[in-house]
Amino acid sequence: MQTKRPLIRFDSKVGNAVVYAQAQGVTPISNILNNYRRTRVDRRTEHNLRPTTTPLQEYRDRDAFRQAQSRLNKLKRTKGDFKMLFRQLFDKTSSTYTYLLASRVGGEALLIDPVFEHTNRYLKLLEELDLKLVKVVDTHIHADHVSAMGTLRDATRCTTVMGEQSPADVVSMRVRDNDPLTIEGLTLTALHTPGHTAESYSFLMDDRVFTGDTLLIRGTGRTDFQNGDPYDQYHSLFERLLKLPEHTMVYPGHDYKGDTVSTIAEERHNNPRLQVNSAEEYAEIMNNLNLANPAMMDVAVPENLRLGLMMPAQHRVPVLEVDEILAEWPAVDCHLVDIREESERRRHGTIPNSIHAPYGHFDQYCRPSGPLAGLVKNSRVLLYCAIGERSTLAVEIANELGLKNVAHIPGGFTAWQNAGGPVEKME
């Protein structure tokens, strides 16, 4: 588990360098500036930042300030743009691109299409950039490499994400077409782009789109296995991706020629597979590629279908089965806590009388001053997520922080619905 260090915040508009050490909760810089009396830092004297209601720590003495200033200058020299961190990482064996996204140094991070063999490389980079990995996304079930989703989840307790059509056994969070996928400071939009596989997704973020294996640079993903369909891919390409603004940068899941990025305009005009007049013409091209199956296919596909936390593993922590809860419902002797994201709750509903404590900041709810710490003193706390993956990890987090009277529902909200448990729709 990563140790979260104080975050140094810099704002050039204040004059000189104003350095903030942020508390464990994440507060946008705009809120900090609005709730703080802005004080120029004088190098010759101790600075004096006076807090109002924002829970921040301050560097009050000269030595601490100088250390923070030095670290800030180092970060500016080595980490580039403070507004967003973006890394394109390459696996030579499978020609796979993995993408790392974060809004700032020291913030939350997201990885797209990580490769198992590079797990340690990703963890080292996250540590070097002082990032907390909160979400890992696979654009589809890969046939040419084993995904690092499972190992990264085990190492960082991040949320695993795939499309709702994915046949993977257990995925923490499933998105559908046009759903937002958020981390601190960044939002991606999920685009269902089937064709390469039935569950293939692309992810759009401002000026760029991560296309997985649907749209490649001067090519497109094959459609001859894993429920691929050239007609579906034609519609994904011509009715979704190619209708994005022409300047949108295209970051594919693979490249075999050394190219790193293209644009929608480039691909529309120069991609040989897109110079067709109909779906039938495109299907004719794709059905006659006669490509050999990926060398790793027989290993990668079964492994990637089992990336999630399997049901037996969900019983390594205290559990309360759905049938036990329903047998006493509604007089169950525990507090129900929903750790899903707000978008999931609004889409699917929630178990009546549940408290909301989203998994992304679950540790904050477990601190001595947090709401869950007070609840466990008097009664049992029962966590649930979508399918039991996040709640298993959350119970472990709670235990590590000293909260022992915590269990979860194996199978999560899905198991609750399948058993006919009452569901409360959110307004």
Features:
single chain, 427 residues, Metallo-beta-lactamase, Chain A, Oxidized Rhodanese, domain 1, 3 domains, six-stranded mixed beta sheet, 20 strands
Protein described:
- By secondary structure, the chain is an alpha/beta fold.
- It folds into 3 domains: 8-77, no CATH class; 85-305, Metallo-beta-lactamase, Chain A (4-Layer Sandwich); 311-418, Rhodanese-like domain (Oxidized Rhodanese, domain 1), CATH 3.40.250.10.
- 28% of the residues lie in helices and 19% in strands.
- The protein has helices at 29-35, 62-79, 119-128, 149-156, 230-239, 264-270, 279-286, 297-305, 322-328, 342-348, 362-365, 371-375, 389-400, 412-418; strands at 8-9, 20-21, 85-91, 96-102, 108-112, 132-137, 159-163, 173-175, 180-183, 186-192, 201-205, 208-212, 215-216, 219-220, 249-252, 262-263, 334-338, 355-356, 380-384, 406-408.
- The strands form 5 sheets. Strands 3-4-5-6-7-8 form a 6-stranded mixed sheet.
- Helix 5 crosses helix 7 (279-286).
- The longest helix is centred in the N-terminal third of the chain and has 18 residues, at 62-79.
